[in-house]
Amino acid sequence: MEPHMAQKQFLSRKEFGEITGLSPSSVDRRLRDHQVPFTRSGRRVLIPMTVVEEMKGKASEQMAQTRTEAQA
Hints:
CATH topology: Arc Repressor Mutant, subunit A
Number of helices: 4
Oligomer: single chain
Number of domains: 1
Structural class: alpha+beta
Number of strands: 3
Strand content: 5-15%
Shape: elongated
Strand order of the largest sheet: 1-3-2
Distance between the termini: 33 Å
Largest sheet: 3 strands, antiparallel
Helix content: 55-70%
């Protein structure tokens, strides 16, 4: 993650897509389906940085579980 991103509290849809590797249409679909929490500031959609941190935590847990299952 870029240094200036660590200081931000909210991300734009574009920034969220760049960080997560999701296409713009996938980001929009997740927002529309309420899979990703967001807030609005006028017409801007703002995604809390905590969402990215939670996604990274879940991904790490899944990778650890996969490794454990593979070793068993």
